[in-house]
Amino acid sequence: MKQLSILAKIENQMERFSPAEKKIAAYIMEHAELVPNMTTKELSRNAGASEASVVRFCKTIGIGSFTALKLALVRELTIADMNINDFSVIEKQDAPYDLFNKVTYVNKAAIEATTTTIDKRELEKAAEAIVNAGKILFYGVGGSAASAMDACYKFTKLGYVSAMSPDFHTMLPLAANLKEGDVFVAISTSGRTKDVLEISRFAKKQHATVIAITKLDPSSPLYREADIKLCLPDVEQDHRIGSMASRMTQLNVIDALYLITFHQVGSRVIKKFHETREEVVRLRR
User: Fold this and answer.
1) Which residue from 38, 40, 85, 243 could staple onto 247, CB 3.0 to 4.6 Å apart?
2) Which domains does the chain have, with CATH numbers?
3) Within the chain, what is the greatest distance between any pair of CA atoms?
4) What are 122-179's pLDDT values in tens digits?
């Protein structure tokens, strides 16, 4: 049986809501695309209800929190509407430019949704750990390996001893040589990828700080075990054509960490940036 969407569930339960909950429901139905970027205070003010009513509304519709409601809306508005990454796409008659526009829309929406899942304090903790790291190790498999490689390249430019490998057995000795003060960045959308979990646990045994870039899922092993969690919205089904929007959210977080770090250490590495640039220009043909 197909599960009701969050908006359909709200519409079906409209007559059972309290007067305050009806105000909130009506606002969400009319402005669903705005809600994921709101706080409870903003929604309550716009709907003409109290913040407590927003919390009660979430529980009434079977959503544990306002954050969970926003995530459900994000998924519905981006993925459910477009369905670009499930196998039904082969049954549609979309032209190439139509598919390009759909991919662009979904990727953009997924990146914007990350503002609802990233915890400011966790981001600050991650930034501090990375800035002070002696060594940074990145690891992801499948689509996440591309994100790990991009991160490794960027932080090498900043002068860090940075490494990654898509091969599990190569990662083992790299992780074995981590120590306290070093950082291991585990990248896994599901938070359940066995290889990533095993290397994360091994890195933790070496007293390295484990930072997880993973979807917001408190039940996943990686979410539970990481020292610092940089959470992504759940924007793709597990069985899919390939990593698209989920990879974009990973890269967005990595770019943010890179810029945050450059902002703090840039003055001491800018000379090397210029030297590297001069060498690149010299080698052009």
Assistant:
1) 243
2) 1-79 (1.10.10.10), 115-280 (3.40.50.10490)
3) 71
4) 999 999 999 999 999 999 999 899 999 999 999 999 999 999 999 999 999 999 999 9
Question: What confidence category does residue 1 fall into, taking pLDDT thresholds of 50, 70 and 90?
Answer: very low
Q: Give the ranges where the chain is alpha helix by DSSP (H).
A: 6-12, 19-30, 40-47, 51-60, 66-75, 81-82, 96-113, 120-131, 143-157, 168-176, 194-205, 221-225, 245-283
Cβ–Cβ contacts within 10 Å for residue 227, how many? 17
Q: Is the pLDDT of residue 191 over 50?
A: yes
CA angle 284/277/129 to nearest 5° reads 135
Instruction: State the DSSP H helix or E strand holding residue 164, giving kind and residue range, or none if neither.
Output: strand 161-164
Instruction: Tokens for 193, please give them.
Output: 């990828």
Predicted pLDDT at 71: 79
Enumerate residues 6+ apart whose C-beta is below 8 A from 175.
137, 184, 199, 202, 203, 206, 208
> In this structure, are strands 135-139 and 183-187 parallel, antiparallel, or unpaired?
parallel
Token representation of residue 65 = 């929190």
What pairing do the DSSP bridges indicate for beta strands 161-164 and 135-139?
parallel
Which two structure tokens, joined as six digits, stand for 273?
């940036």
- Tell me how far CA of residue 211 lies from CA of 31, 130, 137, 264, in angstroms: 35, 9, 10, 19
* Residue bearing tokens 């305050």: 20
Listed ranges 168-177, 217-226, 269-278; the one with the highest mean pLDDT: 168-177
Q: Which amino acid is at 84?
A: I
